[in-house]
Amino acid sequence: MAKKIFVLNGHPREASLSATFAQTYADAAQGEGHEVRVMNVGDLEFDPDFGQALYKEPKPLEPDLEQVLQSIEWADHVVLTSPMWWGGLPAKLKGLIDRSFLPGRTFDTKSGKFPKPMLKGRTARVILTSDTPGWYFRLIYRSALHSQLKRQILGFIGLSPTRFTHFAQSSDPKPGAVARWIDSVKSLGAQAI
Where does the Flavodoxin-like fold domain start and stop, copy by copy (predicted)? Predict the structure, then answer.
């Protein structure tokens, strides 16, 4: 069954592994008959600073942020490609989340003791790159960024399950590694998972 898939490249630079992975996934999914929308955070124009705004009076969303939210609401499956920088997300991608994942649109704060996710029924795939070796990321950092994305960001708004593909030592990959990574992403896109 064909899915509606939203792919967001979270790397702010136009040419990057994240951009390559986003387009590879999108092309493979489209090739299997899925409907795909792709956006690149570097192309979006918005103020990433939540600033002094309150949840009750947030800054009005710029058209690009509105388009991101509409694409998430439209999708059955959301794919995020991103590098890990300083243990977290690039500032512009984090700003997109801060500004657009708001109560009343992505989660409901009036439903009881705990906020209720408003975007249930969607799955997610995160394709992450880092320079940190995989074993070090798991043992020393305890996969902190995976946990944050799965539980505190994507899961918080209802995207579940969130699955991860993590390519490590991406700034200085071993010979042939990038080609293998691209093949893996192509396979994920073809399966729409």
Answer: 3-175
Q: What are phi and psi of 151, to 5 degrees?
A: -100, -45
**133-164 pLDDT, tens digit each:** 899 899 998 999 999 999 999 999 999 999 99
User: Rounded to 5 degrees, what angle do the CA atoms 20, 64, 95 make?
Assistant: 75
Read out DSSP for the chain? ---EEEEEE--SSSSSHHHHHHHHHHHHHHHTT-EEEEEEGGG-------TT--SSSPPPPPHHHHHHHHHHHH-SEEEEEEE-BTTB--HHHHHHHHHHS-BTTTEETTSSSS-EES-TTEEEEEEEEESS-HHHHHHTSTTHHHHIIIIIIIHHHTEEEEEEEEEES-SSPPTTHHHHHHHHHHHHHHHT-
Residues in Cβ contact with 86 at an 8 Å cutoff, skipping those fewer than 6 apart: none
What class does CATH assign to 4-191?
A: alpha beta
- Record the pTM: 0.95
Q: What is the pLDDT of residues 44-61, one digit of tens each?
A: 999 999 877 777 788 899
For residue 113, is pLDDT > 90? no
- Rounded CA gap, 125 and 81, in Å? 8
Please say whether the beta carbons of 98 and 50 come within 8 A: yes
